[in-house]
Amino acid sequence: MTTTEDEADSLGCCARCRAEWSLSIFDKYEFNNKEVDFAASFQPKGLVIKISKLTLVCWTIASMAQDLIDKIPDYNIFWLAWLTVWALLLSVMYLVCSFLCTVTGTSEEPSLLVYVTWTLGSIACPGQLIVTILYWTIDHSLSGNKVTYINSMLHGGVLILVWIDALVINRIPVRFRQVSLIMALALIYLLWTGIHSAFSIGNPNHTDRPDQDDDALYEAINWRERPVWTIIICSVILLMTLPIFFLFWAASAYGGGYRFDNGLRRHKSFKTSSIIGAMGT
Hints:
Mean pLDDT is 86; it is low at 270-281. By secondary structure, the protein is mainly alpha-helical. It has helices spanning 5-9, 13-22, 38-42, 47-75, 83-103, 112-143, 149-169, 179-198, 227-253. It is 60% helix and 0% strand. Helix 4 runs antiparallel to helix 5 (83-103) and helix 5 packs antiparallel against helix 6 (112-143). The protein contains nine helices and no strands.
């Protein structure tokens, strides 16, 4: 069947979700057959845009550098053990790739750099939101860390920067199936916490402190002392990736008013064609 743009935009909620899920993980077309303008979505040009992207890159790298300066003397390579740092490194890589997309030549077809940027953005943006929520709701209250500029940047500030780049300067077309990317990150990190516990790697932050769990990466995740509670926390973390990613998708699909029709994304001219078995008609 063929469909007009108006027919595609009038889909109900369930049909819309089926249509979105029918798209491939890096589909060039929207659910309503609009073709993504990759040059405009990932490689916007202009001096103001270049300066803005460079500012975001420098700001994020400066925050990471300050965190390194503060922690490397005590932690060394263990600095890489925390989820905050994983999300931070992914954010830096995304912002750098996004900046390179803008300063390199424009192409009608997505280049390898565009696909890498798309992948990193789809992980870094929801990943930063997960880190921010977990830190301020669980880790901060249990650890008693002071609220500092760097702490705030790593648990909220960088989140704002990557979302501005991905959804305001760029207009990344988020796909439902990209939820698998952030879920993979969550699974890999939780597996790492299990490996860390099984091999008794320890935690330089807690060593020889009898009032705390010396071997645990986090107070809330302790496979040795509280395995049942840890399984519950890990299950909650995995489950929360779904609504968080949906929120990221919704922000990407927002079209103004009460519409989430991808209206603010950057497209080429509409093409009438078949919608892949998702319309329910």
